[in-house]
Amino acid sequence: MKIMQISSWIRIFLALIGSVLFLDGAILIAFKKIHIGTVLPFLLGLFFCLYACFYYHIERFFFYHFRLHSIWRFGWLCFWIWLISLGYFFHYLSNHQIKNQNIAPIKAIIVLGTGVKNGQPSATLAKRLDRAAPIALAQPTAKLVMTGGIDFGETNSEAIVMSCYVQQHHHIPTSQIILEDKSTSTELNLKNSQTLLQAQQINIQQPIAIVTSDFHTLRASAIARKQGYRHAIMLGASTPLETRYNAWLREYFAYASGWLLNEY
């Protein structure tokens, strides 16, 4: 009787979690946010819902197929190990964000691009720009480097769209802005910015603020260190709640793959 009750609670739990994950992924995919941070929750949610519905049939099938049963149990073990590592990563991100801090005098502010849509910054990119703009206004001698090339289907580069945004919303003068409009990744954002900064007699040994999303500061910092940024000040902008945990999930895989490929 107790085993049956436990099984029922497991099915209810999996059905609830599965429904949340499935709907979360499905809604974001419908808005064309298609990446591992949305597809994986969608697939996991679908699996959990199906498993909850056909729990007894699935468990009975594997019970009578010993070899498959061993693989099935091993798969669950791997899943729980992965889930624990994901939980640790999320915990690290949520507890290592520098929300507010006094910014010492800096030579430049590099804002990492992250996508535009219909000629406007994405919600995530707007948060980064809103994080960088007050610092640029407080330190008018610091150059503000906007980074990012042309996204698929767009006419203007991310850098141009970002520049227009801070001019319109924060009244930052064009003379303070530098455009890096060729890059397509964080690595290129930072690499291409070096040449532009050198033209302004700024080298990467000097204090430079790098503004990105809160979840991205860990990987961006590692990339910056490898490229020789010796006094980089990482500033994290908050991520919109509706995409926050999907973005964190995508970053988990991006950080892991970068570590495995020795990119840091």
From TrEMBL:
GO BP annotations listed: Gram-negative-bacterium-type cell wall biogenesis; peptidoglycan metabolic process
Membrane-spanning parts: 12-31, 37-58, 70-93
Keyword annotations of the record: Membrane, Transmembrane, Transmembrane helix
Heme as UniProt keyword: no
Gene Ontology terms: cellular component: plasma membrane
CDD domains in the record: YdcF-like (cd06259)
InterPro entries cross-referenced by the UniProt entry: Cell_Envelope_Assoc, DUF218, Rossmann-like_a/b/a_fold
Residue span(s) of domain DUF218: 108-253
Protein's recorded name: DUF218 domain-containing protein
Organism whose genome encodes this protein: Acinetobacter tjernbergiae DSM 14971 = CIP 107465
